[in-house]
Amino acid sequence: MLKLEDSPTAPGLRSPDWYKSATRWTQLTFVEDDPQRYDPDFWVDVFRRTESNALCLSAGGYIAYYPSEIPLHYVSKFIGDTDPFGRLVDEARKLDMHVMARVDPHAIHADAAEAHPEWVSLTVDRQPREHWAMPGIYVTCAYSSYNFDFMTKVIVEIAGKYDIDAVFGNRWQGHGVCYCKACEDNFRAYSGYDLPETSLAADPVWQAWAAWRRTTLTRLVAHWDDEVKKVKPHASFIPNMSGSSLMEFDLSVIKKHCPILFVDHQGRRNVEPAWSAGRNGKRIRATFRDRPVGLITSIGPEEIPRWKDSVQSGPEIEQWIHAGITQGLFPWFTKFNACIPDDRWVEPTANAFRLHAKVEAALTGTEPTAEIAVIDPATTLRHWDPDKRHLAELNDLGFYQALVEARLPFEFISDQVMTAEALKRFKVVILANATYLSDEQCQAIRDYVAGGGSVVAAHQTSLYDEKGEARSDFGLADVFGVTMKSPPRDKVRNSYVAINGVHPINRGFHNSQRIIGGTELVAVAPTTELDQPFLTVPDFPDLPMEEVYPRLPPQGVGVSARTTAAGGRIAYIPWNIGEVFWTYLAPDQGLLIANAVKWALGKAPEVTLEGRGVFDLGLHDSADGRTLCILNLTNPMMMKGPLRDTWPVGPLKVSIEIPEGKTLRSASLLVSGTELIVTVQGNRASLDITEIETMEVVHLLWA
């Protein structure tokens, strides 16, 4: 295998295109006593073993790991006459690696807080916000001169002193509402309001603050990037976007200033499926399809107690990285503390990175593709406090799980960039519960349907406009073919939908007469000719037990289905089916979702996979071929990590559609490294896979 130290100069090194060849990242986050204890040679060996071609390294902010000359920029008291940041930057450059300097401005020491109280975030009772985890230090105001002035000096100093390609901002966005005088004045000048004291989605003051925050943070990203480029024209400031699907920023500014993006979703927490690693990558790609996106993976557990200096199980590390690769994300691992009390993470991380190196050529230049798109409802999610936003995503999570179980490849598209032109590359568009949609967004869906597109929608989709104002009817009532009879109801118990006649959407339920319905319902009536594969069973008491029986026969729309004049298909489900499926995981609701999507598709899916197991699929296209990533999720720890071991599955039969005008030349399995015998019938290539351990990559090349 080619060693990094023997390789030719890395493409794009120290050029504006540096990010294009930064595809495997090591991140080391120093702790304060590292300078006198850590072994640089160990880390150089890690760079080699993982075949990393990029490094993200702690430089400054809360603590500087280089001899900073900026007053009040706290330098590690253990640094002595060394320069740990500069040392590893030099070692990485010797290996032709790209380098990004990490800064963290979210806290300051007491001397800086005393000298500049205006840098400190204030609580709602106007008291300095002491750090929640480290007494004696203070949380900074992200919207103040601390970031715009002081941190700018830090960033410029690092870019001027060291051979870097970028500066990476971590925890730079602030922690909620700051009640300092500058925030009060600036927000009042922007909105006319006093600062909000609640985070209710319906509060216009909260919405105004969220918009002001987006404007301020976006301006900060542009400012820092401009200042970095004054020192190093090829370099960039790259903000940590977390997993927010870019809803927190002005997209035009991000498009101009951020050539590469990262998902800071470092591992599973509590009950969480492994596919969520790729989900956030899809969400960022839903806004910027042309940006490379990396997945940050922690080598330690990500649970609330934050055992940041511990080690995750090897199979869990590998599965998380593989899940990102499946959905087109390049790998990045992060280690807190340069000293190594437990090295069990090194080999599994190296294994996963080497797998990426093995399949990288087949994925380079490809574009993730799918016939099915889920609308990422940024307009809806923006109405929620980030700490409560997960409650607004339950329907989306249920649809995601159902599509994974149905083995249907799909992509996301953000409603922020949703146009009829952008939608037309998909055959089916899913709105799991896009409650808030503007008139323009509704029109984009309407135009897509007029062009022959199909839609699967559920619950309160389009009942509110982008400002949060309730509509008298669905904004997409004409698309759904129904009208709202009465306002939504919640906290419904003992709700069911009854199978009505024979229809592809109600197949597979055997002799069942009814299945579980919603806990939130919208009563609707048809406005056009449509099928009703399910009828609503009017809910009835759940106690006393003697009273648990239906009072009325099934009546009213439980699921509607219609074919449009343009040839598309529309399925609408007037209850929270996604949330019900995600919360209880009863198979009936997952089957109903899958049936509705397959019916709306109106053809055989591009990819079919036969055999026992659960798989996440990622389909990638280029002019030269088609690449199918198959992630094996079959494991008792699929929904709750950490994995103890991987469970191989197989045999499997895979059928992949050959695009019109293409002829198959060859097929291979890139992970196992074997050529395949492929049967071509019509426009489909069929092949057998004997066994998959963690993941496999099917690579088809066209003649």
UniProtKB/TrEMBL annotation:
Gene Ontology biological process terms from the UniProt entry: carbohydrate metabolic process
Chain ranges passing through the membrane: none
A single GO molecular function term of this UniProt record: beta-galactosidase activity
Beta-galactosidase trimerisation domain mapped to chain residues: 398-484
Protein name: Beta-galactosidase trimerisation domain-containing protein
Originating species: Devosia chinhatensis
Organism lineage string: Bacteria, Pseudomonadati, Pseudomonadota, Alphaproteobacteria, Hyphomicrobiales
